Amino acid sequence: MEEKVGELWHRMITRAAETRYPEAAVHLEDIEQIMGVMFRALGGDGGLEVAAANATEHGARRGLLQRIAGSNRRVELAWRDEQSLRLPAVIDYFPERQLNHYLYTWLAALAVGDHQEEEAWLNKNQRLTIKTLHNYPGIAKRYAALVDAHLAERTPEDKLPPAEAAQEHAIRQALLEPGSVEKLPAAKRPPQPVPLWLHPFPPISAPSTSRAGDEEGERGQGETKEIEDMQRHKSERAKKPEQEDKGLITVRMENIFTWGEFANLDRGSEENEDLDSAADALKDMDNLSVSRDAKASAGKLRFDLDLPSEANDDLVLGEGILLPEWDFKKQKLIPDHCRIVPMMAADAQPRDLPETLRKTARKLRAQFQHLMPARIWHRGQQDGCEVDIDAYLRYATDRAAGHTSASDGLYKDLRVGARDLACLLLADLSLSTDTWVNNHARVIDVIRDSLYLFAESLAATGDQFAMYGFSSRKRDPVRVHQIKSFDEHYSGMIRGRIDAIKPGYYTRMGAAIRHSSELLKNQPSGRRLLLILTDGKPNDLDKYEGRYGIEDTRQAIHEARQLGLQPFCVTIDAKANDYLPHLFGTGSYVVIHKPSQLPRELPLLYVKLTA
Length: 611
What we know:
Layout: H1 2-17, E1 26-27, H2 28-41, E2 49-52, E3 56-57, H3 64-69, E4 74-75, E5 79-80, E6 84-87, E7 90-91, H4 97-112, H5 121-135, H6 140-153, H7 162-176, E8 223-226, E9 234-237, E10 266-268, H8 275-284, E11 287-290, E12 297-302, E13 314-316, E14 321-327, E15 332-345, H9 355-369, E16 375-381, E17 386-387, H10 389-400, E18 411-416, E19 421-428, H11 443-461, E20 464-472, E21 478-484, H12 492-499, H13 509-521, E22 527-534, H14 547-562, E23 566-571, H15 580-584, E24 589-591, H16 598-610
Parallel strand pairs: 2-6, 8-12, 9-11, 15-21, 19-20, 19-22, 22-23, 23-24
Antiparallel strand pairs: 1-7, 3-4, 5-6, 10-12, 13-15, 14-15, 16-18, 17-18, 20-21
């Protein structure tokens, strides 16, 4: 009974303290693509993706009911950084749904002019408001409606202490007449949040896509101990234990032959333990479990691990190929920055097409055979399968008339035409392909089936084609796996190499595209298609994560087009529409929303691209 009464009380007080309008809410996931298109159309940075903003504590004064209910502590405000435009996941500030939608469009337009300079929050948002209203006068009516609605929702000045009332007056004046307030008055508490403005202190210090081992943006400023001579360890990824186990050891110590426990290798800031002792403990462990910890660190141990997904049985085909990489901050190519390592599966054995794909392959081959150019007669040949009657009659008539003519070219031959087309398929074989798309298959399994059916289909047309896979571990090495070169015929050995593909490391896409472009540009065909198959955006362990990798990939695609190639991307990434328009442009990519359909869709897409 007590729990029931408490539940009813909580529900009643929370409802009474509610200042939002959930019935008029607009969700970012419903308009995310529209906001991205609008932001870029207004001149926003095309390399930014639209993502949901994190809720942060505002610290402003709350009403009595809100304090009792414990609500309204956090607020979602918009901001932008080098990688994303962050908008609230839900906007339900106003009782009218249209006003909530207007706020999304206003925030996207406001963020276009934000270049992240160091500037006071009040002055910055006034400047951005003036600039937005000047550049896009059509949005002025929406802004005026938003200001009126927002001022009606804010706490009145007469209900605030004097210092906070002065702050509130300044903010109201700045909303009504942007540029009229030079300074925000001081007060013990922060002012009420302004959802029409960008975040005063955006939480952009730690990227949301950080990875263990990242060379840039590492947490903490303390001592770092490099462990270079440590032998390889078996390892796995695991969750961090929620609390330290302080129970008694109830087994005899002589029965413990290995050491496998949680050790905080990313040393905590409050416990600045001896790094030498931690390194010795690390070397004594037989199995390492790697987890992530959000705490700052005062000292770090840096070392390499052999994770289970590493492919260590491939044959290296050469010493490596040095390629440049684009630095978007310096706006120039860094020469010889990446090293391509050509590889081939050493344990691949010739095999037949998997039984599960044979029925689909037969249908695709029948469809693709219609693309094969019809056989045509070549006349005037010195030899051939038949006598050319027309040429022979002309020759006999000339002889009867007393004219001498050569007897060459009295035959005709039936030959098959050729399509002036070459295609290179570049498949992403990064760690992310080890994830499951359903209860039956992983992404790598879907890619493998796609390569099988793609090769079967193109072999039926006679088109020149090659297939390569790639993954990377920083800029050296970028592993490029040869599955089929242009000089090889499709055979059981090629199918064996397809069967041998496995998840590798990360996705340094720019280097892989540049290497593939060099291979494809040497083909004499009039039309050359570079088909890129991936499941995510470019990334790697170093600074390639985020904007740097996006811009390098975009530059590599631009270089491919300058060589006369036709790049086209096929992806199963549900968020690809946030970044692929910036990389490939409209019409040069396609998103497969059901990854399990990729094996069937890929060959059919090739038909559309080459029709």
